[in-house]
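REQUEST FORM: STRUCTURE PREDICTION
Request ID: SP-0412
Submitted by: Lab K.M.
Chain count: 1
Length (residues): 322
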Amino acid sequence: MDTIVLKFGGSSVADNEKLKIVAKKIIDLYEKHHNIVVVVSAQGKTTDKLILEAKEISEKAEDRELDVLLSTGEQISTAKLSILLNKLGYPSISLTGWQAGICTNNTNQNAIIECIDTSRIKKELEKGKIVIVAGFQGINENLDITTLGRGGSDTTAVAIASALNAKNCYIFSDVDGVYTTDPNILENAKKLSALSYEEMIALSSEGAKVLHNRCIEIGEKFKVPIITKSTFNNKSGTVISDIIEENTIKSIVKKDVSRISIVGNGIIRNIESIKVILDKIEKNKLEMLEFSVSESKISITFKNQVTDEILKEIHEDLRITQ
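STATUS: Completed
RESULT:
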């Protein structure tokens, strides 16, 4: 029986109604005879709320105590989801990060996973249970709770998937994949069916918020296919794997107001596309401060603000498609 890992972000588990949507997705996959491990984030803005409450008590709260506090958000989500699945007749158990065997270094707020003892997870899977793990957290050599920092639940999910040799790791959120550019800026942005790990790392480093770098790096190291999908529809998502396509531009990202990046494997050899970009810069009389080209990314920093209209023009001129 295949094992698959599903991760649901904070917007997906924000309230009890959304938890019901998540439960249905889990049940649908469980009934297809998969071993299911679920990783969840804290509900909605819970983590931000806990940080604010801690600051109201002390501006210099100890990092160790902050980790103890912040880890509770994910524990609430796991328990609620397990309660719901059990009520619906599907055997489930919630595990904290340390109960799931996630061991980290001694860094608070931004700990790194060093190993995962999967024995408890496997034991529960053998009983036919859906295992729900609290993301974002682990335990160090002193048996202290640690948290993994930004994107920590994504990192938890992919790390568990690699430790279990899972078939796939699904990352569910409120977006249904990775697009050629921000669909909130350009209506004609196209969803990409596939990206390489290298391309996704390049996108994430430039501000694309679908996945965090650390989880992609783990996926690449252990060859775990990562599939980004929406919790709220059944559309196909984007598969991130070790596929390689030469000289294909995949996406354009605007970071802050003065930097754009164009991502695609082999872009350094795509002379025509580089020429198109330079021509567009000259036509719009944009003053460059930096122009750098790597194997999979062109990054340009400008002296002044880059408008959404210029982003749209470059997107159209490059004819970016999936």
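NOTES: The longest strand covers residues 3-8.
Reviewed by: T.R.
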